[in-house]
Structure prediction request, 877 residues.
Amino acid sequence: MDCNYLEKISLLVDGKLSPIEIAETQNHLAACGECRQAEISFLALREQIKSIQFNRNATADRKVLREILQTRKTQSVKPIWPFPPYRLATAGTMLVVIGFAAIFLFNRLPQKFWEVTSVSGVPKIGAEKVAGRGRLKIGEWLETDDSSEAKIVVADIGSVEVEPGTRIRLIETRPDEHRLQLERGSINARINAPPRLFYVNTPSATVIDYGCAYSLSVEDDGITTLHVTEGWVSLMLNGRESLVPASAFAKSKLGIGPGTPFFEDASGEFIDALTRFDFENGGSMAIDVLIAKSRQRDALSLWYVLERVRESDRDRIFERLAAFIPLPENTTREGVLARNRGMLDAWKETIDVTSVGESFIGKNQNAGNSRKLISVGNMTASRAGHTATRLLNGKILIVGGMQKASVVLSSAEIFDPTNGKFSPTGGMQFARFGHTATLLPGGLVLIVGGTDANENSLPMAEVYHPATGVFALTGNLNAARSNHRAILLESGKVLITGGNANHSALSNAEIYDPEKGIFLSAGNMTAPREFHTATLLANGMVLITGGKTTGKPSAETTLSSAELYNPSLQKFTLVGNMTERRYSHAAILLTDGRISIMGGSRGRAWKDIIASAEIFDPQRKTFDKIAEMSLPRFNHQSATLRLSDGRILIAGAGARLEIFDPTSDSFHATLGNVGTGRIFSTATLFENGEVLITGGYNFDYPPTASAWLYSP
Amino acid sequence: MIFDETYPSLCRFLESLLGNHGAAQDIAQESFMRLFRQGTDGIPAGEARFWLFGVARNLALNEIRNKKRRGGFFDKILETLYPQRPNQAEVFERDEATRLAIEMLQTLPEHQRAVLLLREQEEMSYREIAEVLNVSQDKVKVDIFRGRNALRKNESYRQKLSSSQ
Prediction:
């Protein structure tokens, strides 16, 4: 018979016990030989399973990737064919019917295509030969062989020459986005349009146009080479970006991302050293050459090297760069060496003006009156699941968040809209993500709960003092919680509802009294909820909707129910059901008193993510379905807000921003996008109506530090 | 990039899960093809790794079921006539400790093997494992414990393993 404590030992090994349970278990361990042996065995097993190793051959792996990329649009390697013939016949008949219906409908829709002209030889669109003129539709491939060339008209914004031996595909063409995929070969693009309308995806980068002319080629090993002849072009991958000016080159490599831009007249030795530095772990030897062989015009390249070089070599690059281009005002050696974003950017502007003749930022701000979305550089840290709160002085306080599993931040920073810069402020006492931050009436900010690096929910609360930049502990919550909701009530107190307490959802609520600095119980919701919404209504009540009751991530544990909190009675009452089960959705109060409820997941996280939306009418206490968002989204609550003009901005969980218009109850995409879809990002409204968008996960896992400014 | 970050560990997971080199690589490749075919738009940022492990595990389950189905009388004859031996390269690729650890894992039911591998090799949290395998965190907790406890009691392998290391 096994000791009853053995399961606790397994949890202990995984760091899953609370401090009290740890103490109990340690006491037990002192007395129980079987459990002591089990702890040792479990840890030894961990090492044995971890030590399972197969010799991997990186070249063979790359070959697999190439095969995948080549065949990804065709049949799978091992087709799995589980259907008996009679089902196939039925399915076949249905497909034919659906096919005819689709053709009928398609012919009535406006067609999306680009005009293609054959310049020499016989290019192909799909399997069809293009003699003279042809049309490239969305999703179709255009291929040139060794003796053919083609020219494409890119809607009304420019043209692309397709050189021999090239394969491209049209991915999207809309008034606000034109996107091409270049799988191999070369193209020459000339675009005359506002920035960020024309994109090219290559296997190793996304190429973003800022109004310019450039050549782009992709070799068999996936390396992208960009040569800009006019204007600016951005090369991006995994949140790493190289902005390439006219007369300069940059390469991008699979798995690494964009390398350092360099001018076409740079010396061969300088370019070789850059290649070693960017893609071959060049180290100090490459740095020696970069320093010895650089000219003043190479300052732009050195700036990128400074940004990316390891700390031990940063000093030497700094000295060389400073000898060519002195530091501008208000920047310091220490700040630049510490990679202060604002200072690095200020120096880059000076370098741009000297070596390119125009500043990227200056140019794009001047040309940017029509631009709704501009990059404002990076936060001091990458963050997701953080909070961003506008202070009474107009600045934005950004707190905590996670950088990857088990790396959780206590640090905080301030964005100053008067100079567009991020700077660190005092840190919290406890690292956390999935917490809440609430601006209190006196200007202090209340930080509540959240999750720490060991995935434990926290009972600790802190208060940020903007005058001193200090986080001070205040009373503890009665229950540890994360993924809860906090709402400032009309009384100036803060209502905290539900959340997750170490893997089970809570139904209880608490009230924070800022004057006394304590949390008091505020009764129970009608159901346990985490990832729900809480929205203050015009009449002072709070609407709580949906959420998860925890356990297996499924439809059964996802709620459609909604309830109202009455602060004067301190009571929660069921008010009805939404039209859908939702969690990780967003709910925003409209100026007319109704609430717009958007997206979320029906149950199994992103597998059941939805675009649907509905409106709650507090007068009639009804939920009514409305038009859908343009994308399914979830975990976008912290990046969804009401703009000064009453419309709603949805800036999370998708690269493209979206606006909800309450006069027509409809959604439409807005110009520009933030590069990659982000969940757990934030959006915060400034007094002047602009919005700061920060952080969130990007596609390839790590959260990003990048930030954007949106002006409606 | 997702391929470089995830492909080797996905192969390792599948090889440990199936105890079979070739099938593991085919399944890893198929999983990536499905990801690239469907595109990454439908998958929220940061979730691609979990998506891949989830898909790969489902494909591995199919493989295990098919293998069982194939294990009829006819196959037994074939096996006797043409016993399947690992090829030479495969033998060299595995050191003794790896071979024993994999054999030991094969003594567990598949669901316990999967949670243990995700926990110990991939260092996923209970929550992440629950998401990948589409089960509750409570089940993850119990399966991890049961798997560990069963292996703890499997003295023969444990001794061989400790002496091989």
User: Anything to note?
Assistant: Chain B touches chain A through 74 residues (CB under 8 Å).
